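Exercise 7.
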Amino acid sequence: MAKLPRYSLAHDDKKKCWVLKHEGTGQVVKSFATKAKATKGGVLEKAVGGKGAVRIRKRNGKIQEERTYPRSADPRGSKG
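Solution. The predicted structure, written as tokens, is:
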């Protein structure tokens, strides 16, 4: 299986918004006014093009959760 691109959603204190960045390049993919707007109803999945792993961080920088798109690509969800 090909390695999924990794992203991180974290709060940017300077910009005062939540920023989704590609972890490998540091490139900003998308910005959101609130964390709720970023995490609701498939918004993150669309932002990463349907393929990727997103680490959602708390305001203090610690990882809150990780989501994998598509869900079937999550290595923890596969049984073998």
